[in-house]
């Protein structure tokens, strides 16, 4: 599906335009994980969230909110239901109880609405507007989240690139879940796209650095991950990071800025520094905890890096376009070496992510319209030190109704072959000596039962190499 460019919306350093959808490159993860396409042809997704009945909801650039149920549990969306429509640029969705809250816009102000599905058909029956009058300027109201008591938090970007901001701009705001204003949680943000609470009650928000704001040439300030404290100022518009440009020696023919050039008017004095620094123009957007994600847990944060979309003169940089993770202490504070660390690459523009009830990580890619599902396939990190070569293993026919022939290049020493279902469960495991280079699978699991139709992953490994291939089994 392609959508032609009509107009361009600039959201911080992130261009949420209507350019043609990008082609999808292969998603590469750290060893032990694998990415599938849960759903495709989503028209520029902006935010995702799971409902209490384990159904994925997706907000899109064109104002629709879709529901993507997986009714048969095979790890793929079965159908697409329009939950509601008519939102000008919904940038944040979140559930409290069974009700979906949406952060979007009217022509002249930002709003937050609540949506009730009375009959359980995954279509909104009631829409109530709870919050109005949020300022729209250079940026607007973005992501939303709830604390354990049910209060609503909304990230609001800056109104202008310079000067004093209007009362509700450049802030993290707190409301009751009925829309009553409670307090300003923090101020001095340029464009915070999302929010997340850790299991210990810490609130984090990513913030996008400048793209060369008016009269303030600070092209290479870092993007930030901020830990929220009440009544703190986080620097904008006179301080980015701790006031210095990122040193990009070797990437820029002439550094566009240097030490102290991301601070003006002593703007960093008395402000709260970032908890974690990201690459300039990485475009940090969606954030979630690792709670429930196999192999990680509550002491990790995952961040979507939308990716660099602006050209910086004399620099060969293209940061972002990836998913990264940050390490926390058991108290929910940044660890001594928090990262960010690279988790997955190959995305167009990953914009939001969440952990599903199936312990998988779901990623919405604005650039390709794909919702990815990332599963753990190698508990314990087996294969971390092996060279990955997808071409070694060749399954066929693919798709198949059975049997399936798996061939590989001859190897020195033993080889091992594991087959996983789409949920990451080990279905079959075999070992082979060096005289063997093929195996015919009868499509039966370890108990001798014929497996069901669906997508499967074969992983072959030797002492030096590893190879993974997907294949489809039909009824």
TrEMBL record:
Please name the SUPFAM superfamilies in this protein's record. Answer: Soluble quinoprotein glucose dehydrogenase
Task: Tell me the Pfam families matching this sequence.
Answer: DUF7133 (PF23500)
| Segment forming the signal sequence | 1-25
- Keywords from the named record: Signal
- Superkingdom is Bacteria
Enumerate the spans annotated as DUF7133 domain.
61-209
Q: Which PANTHER family match?
A: LARGE, MULTIFUNCTIONAL SECRETED PROTEIN, LARGE, MULTIFUNCTIONAL SECRETED PROTEIN-RELATED
Name used for this protein in its record: DUF7133 domain-containing protein
Q: Which organism is it from?
A: Eiseniibacteriota bacterium
């Amino acid at each position: 599906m392609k959508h032609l460019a009509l107009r361009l919306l600039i959201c911080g350093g992130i261009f949420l335009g209507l350019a043609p959808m990008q082609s999808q490159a292969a998603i590469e993860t750290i060893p032990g994980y694998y990415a599938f396409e849960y759903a495709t042809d989503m028209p520029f997704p902006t935010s995702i969230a799971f409902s209490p009945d384990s159904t994925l909801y997706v907000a899109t650039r064109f104002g629709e909110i879709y529901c993507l149920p997986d009714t048969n549990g095979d790890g793929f969306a079965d159908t697409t239901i329009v939950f509601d429509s008519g939102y000008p640029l919904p940038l944040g969705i979140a559930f409290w109880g069974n009700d979906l809250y949406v952060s979007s816009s009217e022509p002249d102000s930002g709003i937050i609405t609540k949506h009730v599905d009375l009959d359980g058909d995954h279509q909104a029956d009631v829409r109530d507007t709870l919050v109005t009058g949020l300022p729209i300027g250079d940026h607007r109201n973005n992501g939303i989240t709830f604390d354990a008591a049910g209060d609503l938090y909304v990230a609001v970007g800056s109104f202008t690139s310079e000067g004093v901001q209007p009362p509700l701009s450049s802030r993290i705001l707190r409301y009751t879940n009925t829309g009553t204003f409670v307090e300003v949680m923090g101020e001095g943000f340029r464009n915070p796209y999302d929010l997340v609470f850790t299991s210990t009650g810490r609130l984090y928000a990513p913030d996008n650095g400048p793209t060369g704001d008016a009269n303030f040439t600070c092209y290479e300030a870092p993007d930030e991950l901020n830990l929220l404290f009440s009544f703190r100022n986080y620097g904008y518009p006179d301080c980015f990071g701790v006031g210095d440009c990122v040193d990009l020696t070797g990437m820029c023919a002439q550094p566009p800025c240097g030490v102290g050039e991301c601070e003006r008017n002593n703007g960093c004095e008395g402000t709260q520094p970032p908890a974690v620094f990201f690459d300039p123009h990485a475009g940090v957007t969606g954030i979630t905890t690792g709670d429930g994600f196999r192999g990680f847990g509550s002491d990790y944060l995952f961040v979507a890096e939308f990716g660099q979309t602006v050209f910086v003169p004399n620099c060969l940089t293209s940061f972002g376009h990836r998913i990264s993770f940050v390490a926390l202490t058991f108290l929910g504070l940044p660890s001594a070496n928090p990262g960010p660390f690279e988790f997955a690459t190959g995305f167009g523009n990953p914009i939001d992510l969440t952990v599903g009830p199936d312990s998988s990580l779901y990623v919405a890619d604005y650039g390709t319209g794909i919702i990815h599902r990332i599963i753990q396939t190698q508990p314990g990190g087996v294969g971390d030190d092996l060279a990955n070569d997808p071409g070694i293993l060749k399954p066929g026919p693919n798709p198949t109704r059975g049997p399936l022939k798996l061939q590989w290049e001859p190897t020195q020493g033993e080889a091992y072959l594991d087959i996983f279902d789409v949920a990451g469960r080990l279905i079959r495991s075999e070992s082979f000596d060096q005289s063997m280079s093929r195996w015919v699978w009868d499509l039966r699991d370890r108990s001798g039962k014929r497996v069901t139709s669906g997508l499967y992953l074969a992983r072959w490994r030797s002492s030096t190499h590893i190879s993974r291939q997907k294949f489809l089994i039909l009824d």
